[in-house]
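Extended Data, panel c. Modelled sequence:
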Amino acid sequence: MTLRHRETAFTLRLSWEVARLDLRWEASVEAQIRSAQERGEFDNLPGAGRPIAGRGLPYDESWWIRSFLEREQVPTDLLLPTPLLLRRRIEQLPDEVRDLPTEEAVRAVVAELNAEVLAWLRNPSGPRIAVRPADADAVVQRWQDERRKAVPPTPVAAPTVRRRRSWFRRRRAA
């Protein structure tokens, strides 16, 4: 037998051994799955009987991050670049300060937001979008106007007029 024939025979024997190991491995895995089914470990799994989510939709490369955000209920605002996030916070400022009790608290919230805006303006990152600090006086004025509208005017109680009893009822009461 030549060297070439020995190498070919060795390669065939080696590939046959690998194939046998592969078959044994598959048989072992199939046996474990079968025994788990018999024990009922696959019964009542969450999502059983429901269609697979995203089936029939076009492929999306960021499917995993979308599912993570939905599952963990992370607000998508956190994914925005800093200037857009600051602009959104400035837009939502009236809603944020609506329930604050005092003017000082409103001014403190506006001052904190303005400090973040100024910090970003000193060292901008992300897209170049115009972001200006919020006008504290305008926010306080709007807050005061909304509070005046929210407090209903107290109704003035009408004087009660005492009706005189009819002669028949007076006579029966006596």
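The mean pLDDT is 82. This feature is highlighted in the accompanying rendering.
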